[in-house]
Design brief:
By secondary structure, the chain is mainly α. It has one domain. Helices cover 68% and strands 0% of the residues. The chain is built from 14 helices and no strands. The longest helix has 25 residues.
């Protein structure tokens, strides 16, 4: 007796089938590993690029914004200040770009075999965690050089990582579903990501933001994540007034992204 299943399109707004996703965990693992290997395949430096890119970005930001523009860094050495902003931001921006294009770049796979399509943007987000982990290891050397020690705020690091991951994946699911039907998303995304960087405190401190705008500014999830990272690693009070509003928005984006992705899933194979 053949063990087969009839696949029917979903109707209306439905939640992601987490049980089905769990059954395809081996595929998720394979695609995550494939994403890591493909990124550094036939590369002379290999994972060394995950070290060079944040270091050069930090150098450029330190010279341009720290030395020439003299942007305030709240008394923190600007190299350390900018690196603590670039580490989570680089993960967010690279995950957004890769997950948004994950469906289009795997169109051949989508049209030939069935599997939970969420595996594609999720594997893109997970594969970028290696680069992020390497960035955090570089941070150790920065802290030793500048003689800075972290405090108890590091206990909040898992929460900040969850906010970072859910925000990145939530937006990634929304944009990946949109990019299947609207190829303009791919072309506009790189430009939009550059603009978004200046809407987060990557090169400047939140102390430069007027108090009247602080709450609305905190609705950007990356604001609380970046300032939370700086506070955690520099033994400063955690800015909960920036973290919680952003966490709420990040959770909303994640939940809405799952529902929207599920709703659009039925047309992926037709228009990919």
């Amino acid at each position: 007796m053949n063990d087969w299943q009839t696949i029917r399109p979903t109707k209306g707004w439905q939640m992601i089938d987490l049980g089905e996703l769990a059954r395809y965990r081996d595929l998720l693992y394979f695609l995550t590993v494939r994403g890591i290997k493909a990124r550094y395949a036939q590369s002379v430096l290999g994972v060394g690029w995950a070290i060079i890119q944040p270091l050069f970005s930090t150098l450029v930001f330190t010279v341009v914004f720290g030395n020439l523009a003299r942007v305030s860094s709240d008394g923190i050495p600007y190299a350390l200040f900018s690196f603590l902003g670039l580490a989570p931001w680089t993960y967010f921006s690279s995950t957004l770009n890769e997950s948004a294009n994950s469906l289009v770049s795997n169109a051949g796979l989508i049209t030939k075999v069935y599997f939970p399509r969420l595996v594609l943007p999720l594997s893109a987000a997970l594969s970028k965690l290696l680069d992020f982990a390497i960035s955090l290891s570089i941070l150790v050397f920065f802290m030793i050089y500048f003689q800075v020690a972290p405090g108890w705020g590091l206990l909040a690091l898992p929460l900040l990582l969850i906010i970072l991951l859910t925000t990145s994946l939530g937006l990634g699911m929304i944009l990946s579903a949109m990019s299947v039907q609207f190829r303009d998303v791919k072309h506009a995304l790189s430009f939009v990501v550059q603009l978004l960087m200046y809407a987060a405190p990557v090169v400047y401190s939140t102390s430069a933001v007027p108090q009247a705008w602080r709450f609305w500014y905190s609705l950007n999830p990356m604001v609380g994540v970046i300032e939370g990272f700086r506070a955690a690693f520099l033994d400063r009070p955690l800015p909960w007034d920036l973290i919680w509003p952003g966490a709420a928005v990040g959770a909303f984006l994640f939940v809405f992204g799952m529902f929207y992705f599920r709703r659009m899933e039925k047309v992926f194979a037709d228009v990919a």
